Amino acid sequence: MKITTYIPTAQLKPFIKDYKIIESQYDTTNQVVPNASFALAFRLSGQISYINNDRSVDLPNIALSGLRKSVRFIHYKKNSGTLIVSFSEQGLSAFFRQPLYNLFEQTVPLDHYIPPATLALVEERLAEMSNNQLRIACMEEFLISILINRTPDLLVTEAIHKIHSTRGNIRIKELAAALCISQDAFEKRFRKVTGASPKQFSQIIKMNAIVHQPNPASLLDLVFENGYYDQPHFNRDFKLFTGQTPTDFFKSPSFW
């Protein structure tokens, strides 16, 4: 499998984290742990599916995936390719007026949000491009054409910064108070632009920080450092997030 990453141009950098083109010469399954970004996937060739309740589900040609709390296994058939747009943490809200929280744990066709005729033209143009750089340029042109809001919510930006700075170990009531806003108003505002509640978002950040720790010295330390009172609860959340027990995962972590 070949994964090539591209950086967005300055105009889109506030909203887009990166682009990836994934090309698979053989049947391959990727273990994808949750992160705090929406993802938009354009299938370029072949067949791509994911496992849901032990059942293989084909991904739409153009799929929009919301934030998740659980691992996902993506299967790429031989000679398949896809272009993935990873948004910044409140970047998707710059392109769509619809509430984003309905997408939590969901993957839907993009034609739920964009007219099918528009998407057909984008697919046609992508197919005409002779190399990946031209495909990325085509994708950027499309994204700029649907950009509707260039101003981020600064209160949510500050909240995201505080959540990251505590590695997700923060009480939402205290976070709202620090931002001088009621908890109810804060949660609605946060959910609208990030696609997750502050609690869900914090849990994703927390678990992501845990799985990216190289060779933790003690699993028990991880449990208590991250606000868990016992190992069984930690193990349950960890397995939901990665599909493996902590012991098995840290023996040979392989994910993206």
Write the layout of secondary structure elements.
Elements: E1 2-6, E2 16-24, E3 28-32, E4 39-45, E5 48-52, E6 55-58, E7 62-65, E8 72-76, E9 80-87, E10 107-109, H1 116-128, H2 132-145, H3 154-165, H4 172-178, H5 183-194, H6 198-211, H7 219-225, H8 231-242, H9 246-251
Helix pairs in contact: 1-2
Please describe what this structure looks like.
By secondary structure, the chain is of the alpha+beta class. It has two domains: 144 residues, Jelly Rolls; 98 residues, Arc Repressor Mutant, subunit A. The protein has nine helices and ten strands. The strands form two sheets. It has a six-stranded antiparallel sheet with strand order 1-2-9-4-7-10, with helices on one face. A four-stranded antiparallel sheet has the order 3-8-5-6, with no helix packed on it. A hairpin with a 2-residue loop joins strand 5 and strand 6. Helix 1 packs antiparallel against helix 2. The longest helix is centred in the middle third of the chain and has 14 residues. The radius of gyration is 19 Å and the shape is globular. The mean pLDDT is 92.
* Main structural class: alpha+beta
The neighbouring-strand order within the major sheet is 1-2-9-4-7-10
CATH topology of the largest domain: Jelly Rolls
Silhouette: globular
CATH class (first level) name of the largest domain = Mainly Beta
The helix content is 25-40%
Domain unit count: 2
Counting DSSP E segments of at least 2 residues, the number of strands comes to 10
Biggest β-sheet: count, sense, barrel? 6 strands, antiparallel
The mean pLDDT is 92
Radius of gyration: 19 Å
Quaternary structure of the protein: single chain
Uncertain runs are none
β-strand amount: 15-25%
Instruction: Please give the count of helices.
Output: 9
Query: Distance N terminus to C terminus?
Result: 13 Å
In CATH, what is the homologous superfamily of the largest domain?
A: Jelly Rolls
Order of helices and strands: EEEEEEEEEEHHHHHHHHH
Would you identify the CATH architecture of the largest domain?
Sandwich
